[in-house]
Amino acid sequence: MQKIKKVCVYCASSEKIDTKYFEATKVVAKALVKNNTTVVYGGGARGLMGQLADTILEEKGRVIGIMPHFMKEVEFHHKDVNEFIFTADMHERKKQFMVGVDALITLPGGCGTFEELMEAITLKRLGIFTKPIVILNLDGYYDPLLNMLNKAIEEGFMGERHREIWTEFTDPAKVLEAIQSSAPWSNDAIKFAQA
User: What InterPro entries does its record include (predicted)?
Assistant: First the structure.
C-alpha cells in the first residue's frame, strides 16, 4: 500500500450549511491525522475549511493553508495553521494546491470547490496531474455533478477511460481507502485525452 504523506482538501467556506457536513469533515480530518498525512487546504478559518484545520490542529496533525494576499486583507485566513503560503492570485493558489501531493480530496462545497475540482479533472485528463482525485458524495450531494460527467462520457464529449479520473466515496471514514482504490493514471493520458 502506497504511503499517503500529503493531500490537498477542497471544501466549503460557508457556515450556513447542515451540521452533517461539519461532522463528515471532522471524520476525514481525523483519518488523515491518524495516518500522519499533512493536509494542504484553502487556508480559511470558517465553514468546512475552518472545521478541517481546527480538527487537524486539535488532533496534533499538520495543516498548511494557501490563500491569495487579497483574502488575507479581509481576514479570511486561519491564523493558527502550521504554515501559511500567500499567493499573488487564485491561479497561483490552485497550482500550489497540487505541489507534492499524493491525492486531492473534494468535500462538499460551492462554486469555488466545483471550479477547483473541475480544473483538477481537466489537468488529469491531459496527464498534467496524475494523482488520485476522490470525491466525498455525502448523501448524494455530488450526484448532479457526477451525473453530468457521466452524461458527457455517454454523449462522447469524454472517453470511457475518463471515468477513472475520479473516485467517488460516501463514507468519510473511508477517505484513505478511496485514495488507495483509485485507478493508476499516467502522464501519457494526453494520448487519449480526446473522446
Answer: LOG, LOG_fam
